[in-house]
Design brief:
The chain is 0% helix and 35% strand. By secondary structure, it is mainly beta.
């Protein structure tokens, strides 16, 4: 089973296969040279590369209320919320790329002013933070690509 971009996933679900595809390269118990990749059952954990204490993400004060938005476009960049390049306070194209999405619905927690982006016939200084608990990478997306209202400002 292979996971597709934007597909929902669950604990224990196989996401894809890794390996050379030859039995000679396979660890014992993995026929055909493939190793299954799955999300382990149980609570998820994450570690910060900057400290051992998990940091808050923007919009945490609105955590009980996320807003569904549409991210429209092909290969729309999702950018990191981190200290590097001042990405916590000023979302921009200098923030680390987490991934790309194409025409998806996502949960948004809040929006903040950042770098001006002009694309797809629109210009905006606003960026929306996608909820990391949703089906899409948690991170900043320029509002040039975000459609839907009611997203509160980040504190």
């Amino acid at each position: 089973m292979k996971c597709k971009l934007g597909a929902g996933i669950a604990a224990g679900m196989a996401l894809g296969l890794l390996g050379a595809g030859t039995a000679a390269a396979a660890p014992a118990g993995y026929p055909g040279g493939h190793v299954a990749v799955a999300i382990p059952a149980g609570p998820a954990s994450a570690t910060s590369t900057e400290s051992s204490t998990p940091e808050a993400v923007p919009g945490q004060e609105h955590a009980a209320r996320t807003v569904t938005v549409s991210v429209r476009g092909t290969g729309v960049a999702v950018r990191a919320y981190e200290a590097a390049n001042n990405c916590r306070n000023y979302p921009s194209s200098r923030c680390r790329l987490l991934g790309r999405v194409t025409n998806v619905k996502a949960q948004a927690t809040c929006r903040k002013k950042g770098q001006k982006v002009t694309a797809a016939g629109a210009t905006s200084v606003w960026w929306t933070f996608l909820d990391p608990k949703g089906a899409v990478h948690g991170g900043w997306v320029s509002n040039v690509y975000v459609h839907g209202g009611g997203v509160p400002k980040c504190a």
